[in-house]
Specification:
It is built from five helices and two strands; from the N terminus they run ααααββα. The protein is mainly alpha-helical and 150 residues long. It has a two-stranded antiparallel sheet. Strand 1 and strand 2 form a beta hairpin. Helix 3 runs parallel beside helix 4 (103-114). The longest helix is centred in the N-terminal third of the chain and has 21 residues, at 38-58. The protein is extended. The structure holds pyridoxal-5'-phosphate (PLP). Residues 10, 71-73, 76, 102, 104-105 line the site of pyridoxal-5'-phosphate (PLP).
Length: 150
């Protein structure tokens, strides 16, 4: 029976080309890139080269704009907490989300609501409406959720 794997956005098979490129770092140059010993320094050089290549391909102004994380949940946490704390300085305290976000997003927003006594307003999620057999985000009252602190 033919098997169809439909979760490639979560985990996927490694491309043979990537595996080939990664082999030295999985078998020889596997040192901790934050260390000072030789094998770690070699790994660090490879990480920095990768950062520069990714920055170039994405058109980033500076390789320092590229961060490597362990996965989706960590990235969601970084992005949301970072943005919230940056915007807090501008007096923004209102976030709009939807009910069907990943838990890594929803739980982070919920946490931000109570963090350090700060009241982060988290309105009820937008609804979903069905029209002609398709799902649509319910935008009718979206302006009701927008106000100067959003
Ligand atoms: C938006 C989002 N955040 C987080 C995750 C979880 O990623 P991870 O298992 O890498 O933490 C997923 C997984 O599908 C996701 O779609």
């Amino acid at each position: 029976m033919r098997y169809v794997y439909a979760d490639n956005s979560a985990t996927t098979a490694l491309s043979p080309k990537v595996l080939e490129k990664m082999m030295p770092y999985l078998t020889e140059v596997y040192g901790n890139p934050s260390s000072i010993y030789t094998i770690g320094a070699k790994a660090r050089a490879a990480v920095e080269t990768a950062r520069e290549n990714i920055a170039k391909n994405l058109g980033a102004a500076n390789p320092n704009e590229i961060y490597f994380t362990s996965g989706g949940s960590e990235s969601d946490n970084w992005a949301l907490k970072g943005v919230c704390h940056a915007l807090k300085a501008k007096g923004k305290k209102h976030i709009i989300s939807t009910a069907f976000e990943h838990h890594a997003v929803l739980h982070t927003l919920k946490r931000l609501e109570t963090v350090a006594g700060e009241k982060w307003s988290f309105p009820p999620p937008l609804g979903i409406k069905f029209k002609e057999g398709r799902e649509y985000l319910c935008h009718e009252d979206r302006h009701a959720w927008l106000y100067p602190l959003t």
